[in-house]
Amino acid sequence: MQVYLVGGAVRDTLLERPVTERDYVVVGATPAEMLAKGFTQVGKDFPVFLHPKTGEEYALARIERKSGAGYTGFVCDASSSVTLEEDLKRRDLTVNAMALDDDGNIIDPYKGQQDIENRCLRHVSAAFSEDPLRVFRVARFATRYRYLGFTIAPETLTLMQSMANSGELRALSAERVWQETKRSLLEATPDVFFTVLAESQALTSWFSELGEHLTEALACLTLAASPLSVSSEEASHDKDTQLAVRFSALCSPLNPTQVSQLCSRLKVPNQVSDLARLLSQFKQHLLTDFSATDSVNEAASALLNIFNGADAWRRPERFSLLLTAMTPLAKRSHLDWPAQTTLIQRALSAANDVNVQDIIATGIKGPAIKQALNDAKCSAIAQAM
């Protein structure tokens, strides 16, 4: 039995990047031997085991044969006769097909070190085309390592185009595509992910709505991801918030129907999809320069409609996030967004100060209360402006 550190840990060590997780491959062992050593088996399709002390993953060396459509259509052979080189050959990219033994020696049968030196993402073998998810994985790796100058080998890009044109990308699950998308959106240059998909002719499989809007969508996404485009407070947002803002920026050129279609297809989480839909619905209204309007009352009425439509009363944090997500669009429109945001927040605060109990105390009853409340809020907004 021989154990090797494999994959991303070896790659990122060579790139002098932090290693966040370690995966191991075990050659010459059987499931029974692993269980006897105290490992816990977790893999059903192929034998993967958790170390009894560290909890790290140890997988038996395996080879796979394509047996059906999609990324699950494989028959796995994880017998003790499978060699390390055979296991590494089934991996996606040469930079991910290296192993490290206990003595610190790198086993690199497919020239991954050379491709790291040349900053090249290259597929290991023709078996790459058997797993359609790899098109999205390569796009994600291109995104993550763009800052180091990595590009995709021409022959790999050609293979990705062939895979996209085969139609098999549509056999992927929405959850897997979204995970690759999510991880890419949180990288420093998320636009690269969608540029690669476009170059691979893979964009239409899952992101058809972007199509003719791609240039504008990526410009907004780039602004949303730029550290120069957000305040220090916005930059400190957690990853869930960053994801929602960046996805909304990507969807910003789309109409509400297109946003809903895209979110439904990708099964985008509610927190993310809600913000994208709100931005699509209210972007033009929020880009109105309320400080330059001829009629304060009309501006107040317009703001009240936005507050009501976006449910700013009960969801103030979401509304605040909507204003943050609008920043890239405002920059492209050359609107003084900080001043606009200050005006909107002042108007919302004034409207929130209106007390419905004061209106009821005047004797107004029934359905008339709602209209009187709106009138009072509109008046308060106008005064605040």
UniProtKB/TrEMBL annotation:
Give residues annotated as binding ATP.
8, 11, 91, 137, 140
Extract the coiled-coil ranges from the record: none
Q: Does the keyword Transferase apply?
A: yes
Give the UniProt keywords, A-Z: ATP-binding, Magnesium, Metal-binding, Nucleotide-binding, Nucleotidyltransferase, RNA repair, RNA-binding, Transferase, tRNA processing
Could you tell me which residue ranges the tRNA nucleotidyltransferase/poly(A) polymerase RNA and SrmB- binding domain spans? Answer: 149-210
Binding-site residues, CTP? 8, 11, 91, 137, 140
Group of enzyme by EC: transferase
Instruction: Extract the GO molecular function terms from the UniProt entry.
Output: ATP binding; CCA tRNA nucleotidyltransferase activity; CCACCA tRNA nucleotidyltransferase activity; magnesium ion binding; tRNA binding
> Which catalysed reactions does the entry list for this protein?
a tRNA precursor + 2 CTP + ATP = a tRNA with a 3' CCA end + 3 diphosphate; a tRNA with a 3' CCA end + 2 CTP + ATP = a tRNA with a 3' CCACCA end + 3 diphosphate
Q: Which cofactor does it need?
A: Mg(2+)
**Binding locations of Mg(2+):** 21, 23
Instruction: Give residue ranges for domain Poly A polymerase head.
Output: 3-122
One GO biological process term? RNA repair
- Its EC number is 2.7.7.72
Q: Which domain of life is it from?
A: Bacteria
The cross-references to InterPro entries, in alphabetical order and at most eight, read: CCA_bact (IPR012006), NT_sf (IPR043519), PolA_pol_head_dom (IPR002646), PolyA_RNA-bd (IPR032828), tRNA_CCA-adding_enzyme (IPR050124)
Give the UniProt family note.
Belongs to the tRNA nucleotidyltransferase/poly(A) polymerase family. Bacterial CCA-adding enzyme type 2 subfamily.
Could you share any additional remarks the record makes about this protein? A single active site specifically recognizes both ATP and CTP and is responsible for their addition.
Q: What does this protein do?
A: Catalyzes the addition and repair of the essential 3'-terminal CCA sequence in tRNAs without using a nucleic acid template. Adds these three nucleotides in the order of C, C, and A to the tRNA nucleotide-73, using CTP and ATP as substrates and producing inorganic pyrophosphate. tRNA 3'-terminal CCA addition is required both for tRNA processing and repair. Also involved in tRNA surveillance by mediating tandem CCA addition to generate a CCACCA at the 3' terminus of unstable tRNAs. While stable tRNAs receive only 3'-terminal CCA, unstable tRNAs are marked with CCACCA and rapidly degraded.
- The protein here is known as CCA-adding enzyme
Gene behind this chain?
Answer: cca
